[in-house]
């Protein structure tokens, strides 16, 4: 009926309304944006005008470098396209030929980019040093194009080792037992292992790992003995050599 309050489920949403509409001084705008003295009528806030002036000044100061940057970026983008996965139907020979043509173009035109000639020279030098490893990933299945995953693998091991020992540098035991400690440091946080999982299933491989670790331990102990007393260590080696000779 007219005049009766609506039930809660039939009530509509309240009308959206700005908190400063309908009050005295509402024509001045938003109190946080249009403050008194913050900008001229019809202009930008002072902070935006200052940012605009800084951007214009920076663009004007670096205007001479932008043509060289556009050309260098186009070369780098072309190199990334030739080594990318978006042209999987291209053979390895075609990739190498196209990449060599790109390097020849950079070599011939690098002097036309005076501001980036040193950068282009560095790009050519690094590419030449990595040339042997650029294209095998397109011939061997499942071979990654970069070593980013491998770096992440060892970085995770260093992180757990640093948290466990508090040392920023790798300890000697981490280097000696790296074949088992690195795997354990990376695999343990992501998967809980039971006693049955830790039981060796290939005894021959397990013995080989143990022998390699023991061999590294032996070498490390010999190095420590030599560092503590070189004369005594060499005397011991001399005695062992004399005893092994026939009388």
Question: What's the quick description here?
Answer:
This protein has 247 residues and is mainly alpha-helical. It contains ten helices and no strands. 57% of the residues lie in helices and 0% in strands.
Give a verbal description of the structure.
This protein is mostly helical and 247 residues long. Among the domains are: 31-61, no CATH class; 66-138; 153-192. Helix content is 57%, strand content 0%. Mean pLDDT is 79; it is low at 13-27 and 29-34.
Task: Name the average pLDDT.
Answer: 79
Beginning-to-end CA distance, first to last residue? 126 Å
Number of helices: 10
Taken from the alpha-carbon principal axes, the silhouette is elongated
- Residue share in helix: 55-70%
Order of helices and strands: HHHHHHHHHH
How many E strands?
0
Give the helix/strand class.
Answer: mainly alpha
Report the sheet-strand fraction.
Answer: under 5%
Q: What are the SSEs and their pairings?
A:
Blueprint: H1 46-61, H2 66-82, H3 92-109, H4 117-129, H5 148-165, H6 172-176, H7 178-187, H8 195-198, H9 203-228, H10 230-244
Keywords:
single chain, 247 residues, mainly alpha, elongated
């Amino acid at each position: 009926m007219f005049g009766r309050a609506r039930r809660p489920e039939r009530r509509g949403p309240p009308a959206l309304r700005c908190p400063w509409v309908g009050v005295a001084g509402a024509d001045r705008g938003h109190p946080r944006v249009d403050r008194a003295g913050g900008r001229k009528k019809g202009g930008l806030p002072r902070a935006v005008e200052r940012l605009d002036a800084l951007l214009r000044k920076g663009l004007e100061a670096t205007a001479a470098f932008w043509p060289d940057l556009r050309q260098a970026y186009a070369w780098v983008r072309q190199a990334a396209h030739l080594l990318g996965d978006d042209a999987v139907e291209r053979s390895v020979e075609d990739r190498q030929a196209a990449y060599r043509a790109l390097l020849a173009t950079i070599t011939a035109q690098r002097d036309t980019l005076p501001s980036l000639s040193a950068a282009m020279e560095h790009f050519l030098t690094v590419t030449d040093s990595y040339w042997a490893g650029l294209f095998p990933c397109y011939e061997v299945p499942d071979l990654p194009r970069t070593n980013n995953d491998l770096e992440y693998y060892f970085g995770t091991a260093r992180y757990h080792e640093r948290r466990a020992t508090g040392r920023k540098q790798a300890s000697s035991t981490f280097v000696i037992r790296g074949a088992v400690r690195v795997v354990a440091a990376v695999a343990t946080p992501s998967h809980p292992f039971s006693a049955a999982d830790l039981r060796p299933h290939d005894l021959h491989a397990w013995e080989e790992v143990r022998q390699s670790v023991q061999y590294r331990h032996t070498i490390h102990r010999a190095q420590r003995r030599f560092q503590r007393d070189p004369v005594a260590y060499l005397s011991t080696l001399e005695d062992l050599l004399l005893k092994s000779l026939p009388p």
